[in-house]
Design goal:
Strand content: 25-35%
Shape: globular
CATH class: Alpha Beta
Helix content: 25-40%
Bound molecules: acetyl coenzyme *A, zinc ion
Order of helices and strands: HEHHEEEHEHEEH
Mean pLDDT: 93
Structural class: alpha+beta
CATH superfamily: Gcn5-related N-acetyltransferase (GNAT)
Radius of gyration: 15 Å
Distance between the termini: 17 Å
């Protein structure tokens, strides 16, 4: 039933209130509304929402940055930084988070990013499992990254690696 009503599309400005609300409900890392709009205006192809019957069930938003490669020591590359992803509790474990991630990774390729990375709480088993399933590896740990003192894993994905195939990217 969910399948027929579920739609993935780019974020639009009228989604702002719902997306801000989902972020506040699902994560301790919150941002002012202009931060969301700024990411949407700068990188529209990597800011997506999942919509079920006119209701937003989840979002992912990213930023393209240049920085040191996590896979080719010393090289500066374009990287897609997954800034935030969340799915409302009642819509979890249905593949929405995975599809949002795949769509944003596709968007990163459009911006010529060759790698993706993100930070995640070391205790966040669901999210870490999702990222591992997509091929992300734990690149390093940042001690006390979060305001409450928790450590973060930096997880990274080589978007050009063979195993991250076109089939994978076409999954949604
Ligand atoms: N336990 C174990 N594995 C899990 C879990 C879980 N609770 N949730 C997801 N996974 C793994 C599984 O391998 C799953 O595949 P399966 O269901 O076939 O076993 C796979 O990830 C795909 O799961 P989805 O259903 O696509 O994920 P979902 O739609 O539930 O969204 C998300 C995952 C976004 C992490 C969700 O749990 C959430 O919103 N959590 C709260 C917010 C959050 O932690 N966001 C990430 C913070 S880090 C960052 O934003 C960069
Ligand atoms: Zn980050």
């Amino acid at each position: 039933m969910l399948d027929t009503k579920l739609q993935f599309r780019l974020f639009r400005e009228e989604d702002l209130t719902e997306v801000v609300d989902i972020n506040r409900k699902c994560l301790p890392e919150n941002y002012p509304p202009f931060f969301f709009l700024d990411l949407h205006m700068s990188f529209p192809k990597t800011f997506l929402v999942a919509e079920v019957e006119n209701k937003i069930a989840g979002y992912v938003m990213c930023r393209i940055e240049s920085g040191l490669s996590d896979f080719h020591p010393g090289r500066i590359v374009q990287k897609g930084h997954v800034v935030s992803i969340a799915v409302l509790p009642e819509y979890r474990r249905k593949g929405i988070g995975r599809s949002l991630m795949v769509a944003s990774l596709n968007g990163m390729l459009d911006y010529k990013a060759t790698e993706s990375f993100l930070e995640v709480r070391v205790s966040n088993y669901p999210a870490i499992s999702l990222y591992k399933e997509l091929g992300f590896i734990i690149a390093r740990k940042i001690s006390k990254y979060y305001h409450d003192g928790e450590d973060a894993y930096v997880m990274a994905l080589d978007l050009l690696e063979k195993k991250f195939s076109n089939e994978h990217l076409k999954a949604i």
